[in-house]
């Protein structure tokens, strides 16, 4: 009371009142059990709405991509002409002959089966599981990765429509290994909905690199076990590159174009607040400055 009277007389603020107001702000009243339960229900409803909205968005993007791929499914002659041109370019660049690599690999029935199984059953489930993991555990990285995939896949769709390309398995000198053992996603019902002439770019390889980049961005500065995992994940795109070649589903240039599209997408898409870009840059050693 005395401090209040002095404050009124001198025109100075009442420090005791100010301190009390700060204390009130710093220590909010605890929620009642009913209020806490209501807050939890509201949080769960918001989480469910966000998840449902994101699921609809990803499903819509996937359906648009599938529909677009079907637009170029009848360009047979152009697709084979483009395939011959790609083989000529690769030969001029002295890239390894895919047919030689394939024939060496499929001498082993186990290696043949492994490549077919990996191509047919690993690519899509791994990407979906990866996106779910980011959504649940690392939401700040999820939007960044989803946008990378969306841009890369959207541009790939335009290329599939404008530049139909027959895969190596349709060209002389190659074997369709998936068709031989019944694991090809382009046989049976898949032949009716899949675009057989959408070889370039290889989204199998492009999506595999996105998965590796995302895991590395999240784990590269964590505990030793996860740092090791951020390096081992690069076996996924490496194996994918080998698999798409030995199954004769893609050319080397298909993987190169997918990598180029991803690089462009990474320039366009802003990084999240935690900046995985900074994490990735820290892995690259700084250039040495010459001593003068």
How would you characterize the overall build of this protein?
The N and C termini lie far apart (73 Å). The chain is elongated. Helix 7 (123-137) packs antiparallel against helix 8, helix 8 runs antiparallel to helix 11 and helix 11 (203-219) packs across helix 15 (276-283). It is mainly α and 292 residues long. It has one domain. The chain has 15 helices and no strands.
Q: What's the gist of this structure?
A:
This protein has 292 residues and is an all-alpha fold. It is 71% helix and 0% strand. It is elongated, with a radius of gyration of 28 Å.
The number of distinct helices, counting runs of at least 4 residues, comes to 15
Stretches with pLDDT under 50, minimum 5 residues: 18-25, 281-287
The radius of gyration computed from the alpha-carbon positions, rounded to a whole number of angstroms, is 28 Å
Rounded to the nearest angstrom, the distance between the terminal CA atoms is 73 Å
Helical amount among residues, as a percent range? over 70%
The secondary-structure element order is HHHHHHHHHHHHHHH
Number of folding domains?
Answer: 1
How does the helix and strand content classify structurally?
mainly alpha
- Number of extended strands: 0
Q: Main sheet? A: none
C-alpha geometry? elongated
* Percentage beta strand: under 5%
Transmembrane segments: 51-68, 118-136, 148-166, 202-220, 232-249, 255-272
Domain Inositolphosphotransferase Aur1/Ipt1: 85-267
Protein name: Phosphatase PAP2 family protein
Subcellular location: Membrane
């Amino acid at each position: 009371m005395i401090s209040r009277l002095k404050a009124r007389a001198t025109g100075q603020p009442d420090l005791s009142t100010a301190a009390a107001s700060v204390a009130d702000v710093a220590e909010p009243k605890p929620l009642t059990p009913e209020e806490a339960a209501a807050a939890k229900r509201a949080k769960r409803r918001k989480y469910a709405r966000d998840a449902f909205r994101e699921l609809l968005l990803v499903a819509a993007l996937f359906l648009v991509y599938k529909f677009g791929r079907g637009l170029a499914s009848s360009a047979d002659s152009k697709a084979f002409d483009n395939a011959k041109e790609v083989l000529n370019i690769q030969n001029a660049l002295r890239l390894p002959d895919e047919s030689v690599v394939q024939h060496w690999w499929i001498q082993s029935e186990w290696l043949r089966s492994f490549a077919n199984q990996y191509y047919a059953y690993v690519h899509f489930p791994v990407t979906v599981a990866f996106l779910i993991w980011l959504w649940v555990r690392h939401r700040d990285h999820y939007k960044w990765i989803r946008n990378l995939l969306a841009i890369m896949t959207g541009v790939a769709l335009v290329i599939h429509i404008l530049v139909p390309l027959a895969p190596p398995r349709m060209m002389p000198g190659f074997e369709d290994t998936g068709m031989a053992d019944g694991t090809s996603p382009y046989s049976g019902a898949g032949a009716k909905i899949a675009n057989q002439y959408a070889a370039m770019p290889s989204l199998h390889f492009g999506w595999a690199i996105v998965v590796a980049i995302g895991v590395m961005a999240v784990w590269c500065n964590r505990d030793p076990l996860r740092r090791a995992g951020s390096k081992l994940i690069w076996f996924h795109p490496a194996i994918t590159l080998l698999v798409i070649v030995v199954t004769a589903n893609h050319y080397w240039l298909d993987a190169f174009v997918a990598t180029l599209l991803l690089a462009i997408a990474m320039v366009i898409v802003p990084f999240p607040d935690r900046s995985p870009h900074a994490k990735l840059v820290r892995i690259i050693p700084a250039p040495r400055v010459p001593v003068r």
